[in-house]
Amino acid sequence: MSVIDDIPFLTVLIFCLTLGLAPFAPPHVWEKLVMLFNGTLVRPIDMFDWLMHGTPWLILGVKVVRMRRGDQPSDEG
Description:
The chain is an all-alpha fold. It has one domain. The protein has helices at about 1-5, 10-20, 30-40, 45-70. α2 runs antiparallel to α4 and α3 (about 30-40) packs across α4 (about 45-70). The protein is elongated, with a radius of gyration of 14 Å.
């Protein structure tokens, strides 16, 4: 968890807004989530794509939960 704690919150947020949403119309991660819930996420390239676009959101979620619980110091000086 210390690796995730060391990443600045703003950096994670920028990754979510760029890599996490690219391409932007419609967000690619959303398409992959729909494929996952429909059971059509079966090709390895789609799984890799989902992992690549979803990882920034996962890291953001972990950081937010850890900050809310007080497990991680905030980025404020």
